[in-house]
Design a protein that fits this description.
Strand content: 15-25%
CATH topology: TIM Barrel
Helix content: 25-40%
Strand order of the largest sheet: 2-3-4-7-8-11-12-13
Number of domains: 1
Shape: globular
């Protein structure tokens, strides 16, 4: 069976490799536009912003760039950066709350969305989900409440503003419970890895599954899938991280899973209706940024093996082996 669908819009590509590689990998996966999240390298001033936008223009790729709202405990020049081409603001939830409040004020006034990484760093010094599996492996774990307590805090703040707020890479059933009755200016993003895998994949110290936020329990995974089916979740994104240092111990291995080259294919391989997938990876992200996805691709369904030699990302290591959908 084949269907024609709009190209994708990936709202969570970490700047862990060059813009050239990101653009090539995205095009390889039928992605028309992507949002760069400044998690690996800082993007907080005009120079950093201009460099990434210039490189994307050279690659003829629609790259939206999120700037850090708070850098080294100081507010960034958000208004100036928006005028220079910034498309979104990225913040960590455990920054100074007065600074976060000011970011929300700017976002509401400038009508620019905020992407929030909800994670309490003081509770997140582990290498995987805090569970019996982590105990059996003898490694430190990251508890669900490291995320959910931050979600509750930011959600409460969000109620007092009209700014568009995206809770990025949500992984736990507790967070979904907090956000399930959210107002129209609040959005939930889920990383595709957390819809495919759970923490049991790490039982044999398999570093390919080490990522952040971590893979959670089977119950969490099923909760996220159901939230996608019920359209409580607004976006599915890749959370692509070009991790190359995996052939080491679990504690020393890089966080991250490479999958930008196959993101669209993975999304349509999920146990979700194709119409739902299209909303979550294309029309909903485009609507958030008032963009139009103009180009279409044809998806073919079946059983297909993944050939990582065709990846344009510098990270060829991935736990994904097969697909149920591919681009014709």
């Amino acid at each position: 069976m084949k269907i024609e669908v709009p190209k994708s819009f990936d709202l969570n590509v970490k700047n862990s490799e060059s813009v050239g590689r990101i653009a090539a990998a995205a095009k390889n996966s039928g992605i028309e536009a992507a949002l760069m999240i400044p998690k690996h390298k800082p993007i907080y001033d005009k120079l950093h912003l201009a460099y990434n936008l210039k490189r994307a223009n050279e690659e003829n790729f629609k790259l939206l760039v999120a700037i850090e709202g708070i850098h080294e405990n100081k507010l960034s020049e958000i208004s100036i950066l928006k005028n220079k081409g910034a498309s979104a603001i990225f913040i960590n939830s455990d920054e100074d709350m007065n600074l976060i409040k000011r970011v929300f004020e700017y976002a509401e006034f400038l009508d620019i969305p905020i992407f929030v990484n909800c994670n309490n760093k003081a509770l997140s010094y582990g290498v995987m989900n805090d569970s019996e599996i982590a105990y059996s492996l003898g490694v430190s774990g990251i508890p669900n409440y490291a995320e959910s307590i931050e979600v509750a805090k930011i959600y409460e703040l969000s109620k007092h503003f009209k700014a568009k707020v995206v809770f990025q890479s949500i992984t736990t059933k507790e967070s979904i419970e907090i956000l399930k009755n959210k107002p129209n200016n609040i959005f939930i993003d889920v990383c595709i890895d957390n819809l495919y895998f759970s923490d049991k994949e790490l039982e044999n110290f398999n570093t390919l599954y080490k990522t952040f936020p971590p893979l959670r329990s089977e119950e969490d995974k099923e909760t996220l899938l159901n939230a996608c089916k019920e359209e409580i979740v607004d976006f599915i994104s890749s959370n692509h991280i070009a991790a190359t240092n995996k052939d080491v111990s679990l504690e020393e291995a890089d966080f991250g899973i490479s999958k930008l080259d196959i993101f669209t294919q993975l999304a349509y391989s999920l146990p979700l209706p194709a119409t739902t997938v299209t909303k979550l990876i294309s029309s909903n992200p485009a609507k958030l940024f008032n963009l139009e996805i103009k180009e279409k691709i044809t998806i073919e369904f079946g059983e297909f093996e993944i050939d990582t030699s065709s990846f344009f990302s510098k990270a060829k290591l991935t736990p994904y082996k097969t697909l149920k959908a591919r681009i014709v």
